[in-house]
């Protein structure tokens, strides 16, 4: 990977945390997300996806349907696998997807653990153990992990062989980057994440949908350039900005103390995602 790509990868990580202003410890106490999952009627389980000597611990949720369904790979924020991410997988299952959310920190924690096995740190964010570990993840390893879980889903008899990707903040940038690396993606959904290295954009085959917060100048400042680059390469990129919403609104809009703008943006984004589910099913 060249210097430009590595720098963009790290800057995206830093911006994600700065924009959210949240720590790892604050994301571990998500009782509201855990309670929502406990009430879910859908089947959900943890699976170990192995490839190239790695074991990627992933949560997978299944829709309540006898019909074959598309799969979606959900990429977590820079805070790693949280209760909210598990709940998001369940929500995508409710929308009709076989949803898999890999813990990309699998094997990277002390004693070979994953996100939950990192020590909590006051202040968290980029300075915390989880943020630091994610910054050090080799991009090629991330791509290999995502390819492995996508292939795992395609191997399931209940999958209709269509695979989408979705990511949030740091994960949003990774979802966009994954679209440059996997040619058989059906669609990519990018939530408030940076665009990929411009030189990689011509490799994108899937339509890309972007979801952005109105109060997110750092990320939105790069959006016109990404739109221009996608258009110049003849790629489909449709984006929407939810006015007054803050970075991270898909999570913050679901919290019990959610601000109205974030809740409204989350509801609108989910409504759009559900229409796209029908389109790409």
Please explain how this structure is put together.
This protein is an alpha/beta fold. Helix content is 41%, strand content 22%. It is built from eleven helices and eight strands. The protein has an eight-stranded mixed beta sheet, with helices on both faces. Helix 3 runs parallel beside helix 4.
Brief overview, please?
The protein is an alpha/beta fold and 281 residues long. Helices cover 41% and strands 22% of the residues.
Spans of at least 5 consecutive residues whose pLDDT stays below 50 are: 1-26
Instruction: Give the rounded overall mean pLDDT.
Output: 90
The coarse overall form would be: globular
Described by strand count, sense and barrel closure, the largest sheet is: 8 strands, mixed
Q: Tell me the radius of gyration.
A: 17 Å
Distance between the termini: 34 Å
Alpha-beta classification = alpha/beta
Query: How would you write the strand order of the largest sheet?
Result: 1-2-4-3-5-6-7-8
SS strand fraction = 15-25%
| Helix and strand sequence | HHHEEEHEHHEHEEHHEHH
Element layout with pairings:
Elements: H1 3-20, H2 24-28, H3 31-38, E1 44-51, E2 54-61, E3 69-75, H4 83-94, E4 98-102, H5 129-135, H6 139-155, E5 159-168, H7 170-179, E6 187-191, E7 208-215, H8 217-220, H9 223-232, E8 237-246, H10 249-252, H11 260-280
Parallel strand pairs: 3-4, 3-5, 5-6, 6-7, 7-8
Antiparallel strand pairs: 1-2, 2-4
Helix pairs in contact: 3-4
Provide key terms for this protein.
281 residues, alpha/beta, 8-stranded mixed beta sheet, 11 helices, 41% helix, disordered N terminus
